Structure formats: C-alpha cells, structure tokens
Amino acid sequence: MQIRKLLIFVFVMLFTLQGIANDINTLKQEKKQLAYIVSDSNIPFWNIMSRGIKSKAQDLDYEVTVYSANNLLKTELENVIKSIKAKVDGIIISPISSSTAVTILRLAESVNIPVVISDIGTDSGNYLSYISSDNFQGAYEIGKVLTKKMQEMQLENASVGIIAIPQKRDNGKKRTAGFMKALNEAGIKSSGLRQQVDFSYKETYDHSLALIKEDPSLRALWLQGSNRYQGALDAIADTGKKGEILLVCFDAEPEFMEMIPKSILLGAAMQQPFLMGKKAVKVMDQHLKGKLVEKNIHLPILAISTKNIQINRPLIERNVLGIDKH
Asked: Which residue range(s) make up the domain with 122?
C-alpha cells in the first residue's frame, strides 16, 4: 500500500513539474523580442546607447538582439532582413544615415513592425517615435563656450576649423547650424569644414592637419564627434601649435573627465546616449501595451567645461558614459 501511495505521489509530482516546465517554456516563448539596428557598435557612443537599451529591456523583461552594420550599407540592410525574419515585436534603429533610415522604415512597415528611431533621424517614412538630442542647441552652447574663451584670449580675428560628421545626417546638419550661429553672434569666422567618412584616427589627423596648414589664422578646432580626439591633438602638436589651438568636441569619452579640468580639451557638448537608449525601450514598451507615445522626444545636451564639470560629474557618469551602478 505504501509503495502504491509513493508511486502515486511520484506520478503527481512529475505531472506537476511537467506542467511548470511547460508554463516556463510558454513564458519564454511569449517574452517579447526587440532588435537594435545600429550603424557601428564599435563606436563608444553607440555602444553606450546599446547598453542603455539592454538595461531598460532587462527591467521591462524584453530580450534584445543588437545588429551592428559596422558602417556598411549592405550589412545594415542584411541586419534589417534578419530582424524581420526573427519576427521581433519592435525595432529600434540608429541608422548609418538619414537616407538609409528610409529603407529600414519601409521594410519594417511592410510587415507591421513598429520602429523607434534613436538619434540620426530620417529623411522620410513612418515611425513610432524619434528620440533625439537637441543637436542644434547643444552645438550652439558648446560654440558659445568656445567663442567666450576666444574673446577672453583676444582671438576675435582668428578662425575655427570644423571636422564634421556626414552632413547628409539630420543631426550633422543641426550641429553645424547651431555651432555656426554661435560663431556668427561672436563675429568669429569658420575656416573650413571637412566631413568624416570612416571615422578613423588617420582621417581625423589628416583633416586637422590640412585645416591648420591651410589657414594661418586658425586658433580652434571643433570635432563633431569624440572618439578620435587624439588625431586632432596630435595634429596640433605636430604643427607646433600646442597651447595655441583650442579643441572642443561633441559627445564624450571617459578620458574627458580628466582632460577638461586640465584644459587639454576646452570642453565638449555631451549627449546622453545611455538615457536615450533607455527612453527608446520605454517608448516601445508603452506602444506595445497600447498606450499613446510622443512622436518626437528631444533630450538635452550638456555643454561641459572646466566651470561645470564637477557639479555634473554624477550625471555624466550615468547618462553620458553609461556607468550603470544599480
């Protein structure tokens, strides 16, 4: 009798455990999937944004697959096809350019997958929400930091060289426009603008060197990115202009936390990629739960210099550099 009861107990337990296992598998199958299609995750800015996306996705119980195009158009298109075949519930994109975003949006729309754009922007197409930094205002504010310093140094008659991200990008156009507004208000001229293509050290070095050699009156460089700052600094040093030519950047690297206080770098307009990534997932989650979302969301850019870097350090570490301490 006891053996019979034991067998019944074992059978019931096995049946119960099987049911639990089936429920777990069902939950796993029902766990919503997101894809993050990014131009190049090797670039620190996009890497930090992807970490913000992953952080918020984990909080909200989503699974995320990151597809990096390594700045190759063909790979970006292949990544879109992969995400569609994976039947993801939503796609977040940081495209190579505003024009390639149009193709991504068309493909996603054809299979009814909602898309949130996180930075860069698009020339046209339907999307759920566009999370962006206020590139115009951020560039304007860092431009004012530079022009004020130049005025203090009595360099009003000097010029500024610009090393720009592609001007086909919506964010690139706005950065240039905002910065030029600051220069024009101060009566300081732009020496020239050279666009980045491969975002390499050599390209940044060569552009910086050319701008410096072409214009003897050049006393400042503005790099519309951050990770190749060393190329600009080396060009300044190699032309014997160290201490004579100021450098300001857009975005930030961990090293900037020491370089700005030491005046190696005058300042930087710091976007908040970790926060942007988290916001993109939150908006997607709201939509998938049937809630209305904002079409355009602009996040502020921090114009950081020696005067405000210490007070903003916690905010920079969290939202700019993606140091997630929780």
From this structure: 32-133+273-299
